[in-house]
Design goal:
Number of strands: 11
Strand content: 15-25%
Largest sheet: 5 strands, antiparallel
Shape: elongated
Helix content: 40-55%
Distance between the termini: 185 Å
Length: 274
């Protein structure tokens, strides 16, 4: 029986205990190498993905702010004010633009884009309020109550503004000016390193001054007709010149024809007497 059992064991295939232990050790070495490689590669992948997402969010925020500033309107705060409602500083800007939104009707909105502070740090927020003429001798902070805040940027990034007119000289503020700025520079900085990001941009403002007529009347119309210049001296000169030309042209042909007829009659009379 011992010989038959030995033959059965020889015919049955399998691994010995030593072979199994060696295979497990090799598998452990391979898995540990893959784990070390993944531990070094995955944080770099996550940092790169976060950097790309932040760049996309910053780009969307700058595009939104640029579209708002480009649509700024030359609208005074009230009837007694001639300057546009535009208050720009290094960290915030307030201006008037056409109403924007899915439920917005025809009208204007006062938009404020500025930096605020919350429990998570600095944040750039866009808020708006319906535009209504402000009372005389009143400040913007007292009369305007903004709502509908929209978060645009979060720390560690900070946004600053600079303004330039037609002379292209950049200023850190734009207040009490008769014109809107020609361009607004949006600068994004890293709050930790104060490094300026390359995604910073410059936005042109399409409207800088109000529409003006050809005359000095407030409604832009002259002599009851819009866009017609009110120049009585020029009109009198033009009328006198036109009348003199028409009279000279109208009378000279008639006088010449009458003179020729009188000359012909006189010649016929002399011929008959002869």
């Amino acid at each position: 029986m011992s010989s038959s059992l030995a033959r059965r064991r020889i015919r049955e295939g399998g691994f010995t205990l030593i072979e199994t232990l060696v295979a497990l050790a090799l598998m452990g070495l391979v898995l540990s190498a893959l784990a070390n490689l993944t531990a070094q590669w995955l944080p770099n992948w996550n940092r790169g993905l976060e950097r790309i997402q932040r760049s996309e969010l910053i780009g969307i925020a700058l595009q939104r702010i640029g579209a708002d500033l480009a649509a700024a309107e030359y609208v005074p705060a009230n009837r007694g004010e001639r300057r546009p409602l535009f208050d720009g500083s290094e960290l915030s800007v307030t201006f008037v633009r056409t109403a924007l939104g899915p439920n917005a009707g025809p009208g204007l909105d006062v938009v404020r884009v500025g930096e605020t502070t919350d429990r998570l740090g600095f944040a750039t927020v866009r808020s708006s309020a319906p535009f209504r003429p402000l009372p005389l001798a009143s400040s913007l902070s007292e009369q305007l109550h903004f709502g509908e805040p929209v978060l645009l940027l979060r720390a560690p990034f900070r946004l600053s503004f600079a303004y330039a007119g037609q002379d292209r000289v950049w200023k850190s503020s734009w207040r009490d000016s008769d014109r809107l700025p020609a361009a607004v520079r949006l600068t994004v900085r890293d709050a930790a390193s104060e490094r300026i990001l390359s995604i910073s941009t410059v936005t042109p403002v399409h409207v800088q001054s109000p529409a003006q007529g050809d005359c000095a009347q407030p409604d832009g119309g002259c002599d009851g007709k819009p866009g017609t210049p009110n120049n009585p001296q020029g009109n009198s000169q033009g009328n006198s010149q036109g009348n003199s030309q028409s009279n000279s042209q109208g009378t000279s042909p008639g006088n010449s024809q009458a003179g020729s007829q009188q000359t012909g009659n006189a010649a016929m009379g002399q011929g008959g007497q002869q």
